[in-house]
Amino acid sequence: MTEIILFSLFALTAVTCALGVVFHKNPVHCALLLVAVLLSLAGLFIMLHAQFIAALQVIVYAGAIMVLFLFVLMLLNVRRHEDVLTPGAAKGFGFLFALIVFVELLWVALSPGGGEQGSVGAPAALPQEFGSPAAIGRILYTTWLYPFEITSILLLVAVVGAVLLARRKFVG
Amino acid sequence: MTFPFPVDASLSLIEPLLIVCGVGILLLLLDLVLPHGQKHLTAWVALGGLGWALIRTLAQWGLSERGYAGMVSLDNLSTLFNVVFLCSTAIVVLLSMAFLKREEVEHAEYHALLLFATSGMMMLASGLDLITLFLGIEVLSISLYILAGYRRNSDASNEAAMKYFLLGAFASGILLYGIALVYGATGTTSLHRIGEAIAGVGAPVPEGLIYAGMSLILVGLAFKVAAVPFHMWTPDVYQGAPTPITAFLSAGPKAAAFAAFLRVFFIAFGPAQAEWDMVLGVIAVLTMTVGNIAAIAQTNVKRMLAYSSIAHSGYVLIGLVSGGLVGGTGAVFYLMAYVAMNLGAFGIVVLLESKADRGEELKDYAGIGFKYPLIGALLSLFMLSLSGIPPTVGFVGKLYLFGTAVQTGHVWLAVFGVLNSAISVFYYLRLLVLMYMRESQETLPAIRIPLAMAVVLTVAAVGTLWPGLFPNTWFHAAQESVRSIFS
Questions:
Q1: CA neighbor of B88 nearest in space, from B342, B263, B303
Q2: Helix and strand counts by DSSP (H, E) for chain A
Q3: Each residue's pLDDT tens digit, A110-134
Q4: Which of B29, B133, B152, B170 to mutate to test the interface with A (most CBs of A within 10 A)?
Q5: Is there a smaller number of Cβ atoms within 10 Å at the N or the C end of chain A?
Q6: How far is A9 from chain B (nearest CA, A)?
Q7: ipTM of the complex as predicted
Q8: What separation in angstroms does the CA of B86 have from each of B59, B288, B351?
Q9: What residues does each domain of chain B span?
Q10: Domains in chain A, start-ordered, CATH in brackets?
């Protein structure tokens, strides 16, 4: 019972705030609502026994990355409160297709076979140290070694690109 | 010292990938020590790295191994595609030399990013897991966004990068959502285990969730190969990006996305082919038709080749829909053919254009056939091959593709394919008519073909003609590569 109450609390906050991020017109408010989304997601992670991921979510996303977001917003000094959605037909089509996808996914999630018989849901027994930094570190450097290493190439490419595109002027 | 955990990490398995990444990092360091004015030397280092990786890749032909917890596969498919990627990147490095000098943007980062993009393609072609697949796509795409915007003082280039980035990020999000749904349904991201779960080995899986995930993955991959209706970015990005990068975009990354397509849809979703082959068939027809018809209306050569590239994705999709060994072979053979003839065509475009996007309009090609007989003859060869006229590789590829469609009972696909080839003849040959039958408006300057360009055009011309006359080697290679994913 507690689980259902906690889940509803975090899930509803996440969805409501996510809608707020999309529909709010003031970018700073959007960013703050995004913090609320990320924090409720951290709550959901804890309920999935992933305490370490939850802590990282709070420190990295809700903390560091959001500070950068807000920095950029304030540096750019965005004050315009205009409607950011494209008016007219594009808006209508956008809503229509979003609605279709939403109904479709809802139907898939609720259709029989979505819950009991499949492998959806928590496995019966979790290993003792599931979700601990030690366990995550171990699989990161054994099973998931290859994806972990190629992620570093990904980050390197992103850094090189940011420097290349943002450098004021090519020297020489 | 002994390692406390068993680590399944064989370096020889990913040797070419390591060489390409290593040389990419070396280039970034070289940038620090090379004085200004000497940066063009990085191109030769990049070429050396690519050549070394190519030699090591060729030595891997015939090997079949898996490693890294079953996430990486070294088989003939990954080896063949690695050869295609390394060759096409080397050709693009050669193509870029004159371009970078003319635009005064010679920097080590350019070649480093080309190599990182190549490493992303190699990750894609060898990945047996949805996670590695996604990371490969991201390494590739992020390098491409940056390269598309490489000419920062050009508005068109900035627009291309921005559009590509926004739409690409969105497509990656959709792909990732699909991966999450499939993981939710099957509890695994391994392609083979997803395939087993769908085939009904073990506990039953929620079908609705799998098909929803499959459709989202299909959308994500269709965006990367520029299939209709996810092709909107292609013309603007191809036109705005620096021309050597446009050539790059249309060759390696497209082949890489198709390699991922092959693995995901043949291994993971293979048991559910009855569910996806109609969807993919309709996408193939739409892609061919929209690409070819829109190409007719273009006045800019790069834009025309962009729509032609969309149309060619449609032809390759016919092979995927036909399925199995024959269909896969047709798709891989056609990809190799497309990469060769298309790089040749773009080589000519790079050669004929001049600073600040001049010489990219169709009317600029008026009268060049007699003024530059060699360039005219080569461009004619590539255009004939793209439209599928014998004795070129484009003809053999199409013949085989449409043949497999008929063999596997997809006659309607073959009919649409042939009709579309007929439409495409119109705009490819229009370029020839312009070259040989119109007078030029202005006096044409004499053109000297630089050595690097001569190498590119020779390789592309040989790649277009030789397999057109003797297709057996390529055909055998394509067949062996597809056979290796079924074993």
A1: B342
A2: 7, 0
A3: 776 544 444 445 555 677 778 788 8
A4: B152
A5: N
A6: 22
A7: 0.90
A8: 14, 28, 22
A9: 272-487
A10: 2-125 (1.20.120.1200)
